Amino acid sequence: MTNLKQVAELAGVGLGTVSRVINNHVSVKPTTREKVLEAIKQLNYVPNEVARNFKMQKSNLIALLLPSIWNPFFSELAYYIEDELDREGYKLILCNSGGKPSKELYYFDILNQNKVAGILGITYNDIEDSLNNDIPIISIDRHFSKTVPCVTSDNYSGGRIAMRELYNAGVRKPAFIGVVTKVFSETMLRKQGFIDEAAALGLDYVVYEEPDPLMDELSFFNNFFAIKEHHEIDGVFAITDMFAARYIEQAQKQGISVPDDVKVIGYDGIQDNTLFHPILSTIRQPVETMARTSVRLLLQRIEGVPIEHDTYRIPVEFRQGKTT
Amino acid sequence: MTNLKQVAELAGVGLGTVSRVINNHVSVKPTTREKVLEAIKQLNYVPNEVARNFKMQKSNLIALLLPSIWNPFFSELAYYIEDELDREGYKLILCNSGGKPSKELYYFDILNQNKVAGILGITYNDIEDSLNNDIPIISIDRHFSKTVPCVTSDNYSGGRIAMRELYNAGVRKPAFIGVVTKVFSETMLRKQGFIDEAAALGLDYVVYEEPDPLMDELSFFNNFFAIKEHHEIDGVFAITDMFAARYIEQAQKQGISVPDDVKVIGYDGIQDNTLFHPILSTIRQPVETMARTSVRLLLQRIEGVPIEHDTYRIPVEFRQGKTT
After folding, report:
1. For site-directed labelling of A164, which of A83, A290, B194, B203 has its Cα 20 to 30 A away?
2. Where is the HTH lacI-type domain (chains A, B) (predicted)?
């Protein structure tokens, strides 16, 4: 049976270096790493170091419940959550709910009954009564009345910043467009920030919303284009980037030019690649910080360390694109 | 203790209907579903049906090892894999390797030692010797010489189709651009299909590749723009959509107009939303079928049912965009 020492001898390095390579520390030089990996391969060594750091038991499985991993905002969030969990020796179980209450209930039941170590939940439905106090939960974007801490971006400030940036770009008749869920979610504060800032600037504004989920996207925009103030609107703050992109697409079909006729700001900042045109002006969510904060709070709760606040609102910033 | 029968009585439906709602079958009418969920809520029923279908044990945990869930191709794949596993009572553990061989080895060690039921792996590195025959593995896009079945899109036909579509769009001096990995991967057949079709059409063609991972993307394109045949090239087949999008961005900076000067076709078909402009012409990968096939084969292997083929190549199709 090969041991760590033999690997270290063959590679001509110390035990600590072998351990760092196995545990994937960034502080190892690439040439050294190669030597160690070569020795591991030659000796066919199964690193028990790894096993010591991680044994897959229910107690180190964390479930991430989200609407859909296919959505770029959620896949970025999941990427950082997995990274942070891995650093701490936890593994991530992925549960896509499709946003359906019945599937969320189904997953909560499974997770409750099977005692995962904890749950990170992103849900916009009314499933309050199904939460079980036995398993630590951290919620993202959503408050439950029970003692579930919530991590979110600073949606309210984001709404105010978006309105102010529209104003700075010359907008005098702004509109907020979005969908509204039955239960309160932090994301609703985007609208509130928009309203308060518009009022502070002494502007007339429009709010146009329909219930989530939208049954017919096209009819949403047709309804919006049909409201009587519509021809006056010269700026749009959309509840998400996807919504902003869809608005731009539909507006163009109406002969409305962005940003000449209407300035547009989204929310999320999912456009980190060159495929997206036009590049949206947007309120960038601090996805990485949100992910790592959620994991840290969940592990705190698992370890029984008290959590100071109900809500952790991470600052956002405006990112200038080509639509304002 | 509330039981299923009481829920069925209160909701005024049969036992089977309650079970279908709990198990999230699509065949239940929305109004009926609501009635059942309401009854479940009123009675505070914890569905043991769910527990019976799923008990979280090592034997129903499947690991998905992929470079990054943040990549839209992989997040779409993960979405369907999770959906298919959930139907069969399995849960998905998500492992992002970052494409690094050391992290892939680390995950394989963890998974080997902890005996998950199976592994779905997407890896483009040389980690052959670390595979363990004890745990069923299905590979996506990559062949291992050991008996690991591989599920992939029909990359070779995709390459031929792409070349033919470029030709139909008027291209007479085509180029293939991409990166090349050290170990053989099915994705290399995209280039081979391109070459064979160009030859069959009697065309002169260019292949420009650099080793994966690219250290400097900008220098890749500058090198490509500097090759002597470059001014003759009137069509580009890029190894992925992301690569095609980057080419378009860099080409525009050189004053090259797409599709007027150069027609472009990508591979993947990740652009299923309105944020992307220009809409790429592309070879669409059958992501959903690839995902469900991989899961089905993995479960077959777990159950000891022999798998007929080494490789499952799922047909692709051309999707017309605005770049040809």
Report:
1. A290
2. 2-56
